[in-house]
What does this fold into?
Amino acid sequence: MPTEFLKKLPGIDSNNISNITKKVKNMVELCKMSEDDLKKLIGMRNAKELKTFLDRKIDINVNGNED
It folds into this structure.
């Protein structure tokens, strides 16, 4: 996985990025992980931040702008 992209995600930092890159195959797998599974990799607070971000719904209107 591209580590520069991962570093920009909430809850991912230089202290825990190696756990993610060693245990997660790709972004799809990361996005499908439960908060409990993420806790095992990056800790409670970081898992909550990341899961909240990944689960956030993005609405796009007809003009392609985010609401």
User: Anything to note?
Assistant: The mean pLDDT is 88. DSSP finds five helices and no strands in the chain. The radius of gyration is 13 Å. Helices lie at 3-7, 17-23, 27-32, 35-42, 44-55.
